[in-house]
Amino acid sequence: MLLWPAQAMASDAQIIVNADAQVESLSQAQLRRIFTMRQRQWPNGLLIKVFVLPNQNALHQHFSKSQLNMFPYQLERLWNKLVYSGLSERPVEVYDEQQMLQLVAQTPGAIGYISVTENTSGVGVIKLAISEEGDDE
Amino acid sequence: MNKRKGIGNVVSLWLGLTLASTVWADNDIAWHGFLSQGMMQASDSNFVNDSGDVSFKLTEVGVNLSYQISPTLRLASQAVYLNGGNRYPEGVRLDYLFLDWNLYSAETWQVNLNLGRFKNYHWLYSSTRDIPHTRPSIILPQSLYYDAFRDFAKGNDGAALLAQGDGTFGSWEFNWSYGDTPIERDLTTTLLGDMAGGRLEQIFDHQMSFYFQPRDSFSQFGVAFVNSDFKYLSSEQDAFVDGRANTRRVIFNYKYSAEFWDLSAEAIHENVIYQNMLFPGYYQELHSQGVYFQGRWFANSDLTFLARLDLFDLNKNDRSGEWLEEQSGGLIPHYFGYSDTLTLGVTYRLADNWSVQAEVHRFKGTGRLSPAVLPDTQINDREYWNLWAVQLMYWF
Description:
- The complex is a heterodimer of chains A (137) and B (396).
- With 137 residues, chain A is of the alpha/beta class.
- Helix content of chain A is 37%, strand content 20%.
- Chain A has helices spanning 3-11, 28-35, 58-67, 72-85, 97-106; strands at 13-18, 25-27, 49-52, 92-93, 110-115, 125-127, 129-131.
- Chain A has a 5-stranded mixed sheet.
- The radius of gyration of chain A is 14 Å and the shape is globular.
- Chain B is mainly beta and 396 residues long.
- In chain B, 10% of the residues lie in helices and 53% in strands.
- Chain B has helices spanning 3-23, 150-153, 185-192, 322-327, and strands at 29-41, 59-70, 73-83, 91-105, 109-119, 155-167, 170-180, 199-214, 219-233, 243-257, 261-276, 283-298, 303-313, 340-351, 354-364, 384-395.
- The longest helix of chain B has 21 residues, at 3-23.
- Classes of the chains: A alpha/beta (137), B mainly beta (396).
- Chains A and B meet through α2 and α4 of A and β1, β2, β3, β4 and β5 of B.
């Protein structure tokens, strides 16, 4: 039973952004708008670059359901619709959390997610606080 | 355009874009595409071909490019090669080419203006109906996604305004578009038949739609309105005369997305008015109705099953088609007055970006076969007929 809290913590997603984005927090609605490729710019005008883990990845599935309130297949379907009807681009898919961390740190305007247990000190990314739905309204 | 030339053009385009993407190795440019080939058969109708034999005329190939010019301006384009047999004219098409301008962007909503050739964003599957891996089945429900109307239901040349937001009560989307679609000679034949020697033109197409998903809900509700005018310019050797047609559509749709299954439904009421066209002084007003209910079960991450019932009546005041048969002096059988379909399908993901889809359809009625205005009663002489299709698809 003692394993449960530790497992739950490991599967929680921490949102990270590149320091150039100059943001410290987002509402859940904004987070959804960014990962559904609707919001394309940060408040400072910088273009947002979205990074995601593969569809089958457990952290991606948990992130999609718990933070975006969407099932992974809905996200995939929406991205396909955007890409093949010309409305927007899809996020860049990375192999694993290490690559995610590296690319978000290197790419201006980047946003992604990693496990809360992942060490980010000295990497050059900012951990974002996500406020509950409605807090911004 | 012949098939060899069509494929050659797409290959040239591909090579050009591959080279271009190497040269412009830049984050602001992205390109994607899809390739698919299938086979299908509808032995007792002209849906696929006139012979009723197994056909390989189920090819869909496309490549698209998106260029982010500035944070608020983007250029998007896609070219496709399509071959669907009798369903629509074969050939290479410029699917879309538009400037996407972000007019306004706030924290929870934004407005974009699309100028150029854009897709039809108003119905559930209209914007990606030619992209095999994005649609639920190879053949979409013909009540709404009638293949003969594909070319002017897929998008327009003009302007589209798209607004989307996330508010206290949920997510919403408002789309408006105005434009027209150039109609090629082959499409005129698909719609009107070989006896039409003239030219069909779309004068305008005006559409609006609104979608709403309540907060924390699995349901999505939508409504779309269509108003479109056409004119027919006859030639010297022509069975038709100059005329006009107007179509007005109201479409309601609903989607429920659960973790391992989903439901979709779209209902259409269409009012079509024909003036002249068949002979001077001819006037006909039809109120057509259709609805489909579709369920999918995601058995696992690779396997999806589909079941769908699609119902369509050409004239809501003549659901049995008897008036149609009587009016035509017995030339058009009553079963051209409706088209009801039961579809069972399966999709299997073979690997990343590879899928295979297979389906069977049982049709009652021939009301959604082409030509649309003067039907082919020689080949389509069965009230009940079947269709099967298999398609292999790859995308990147």
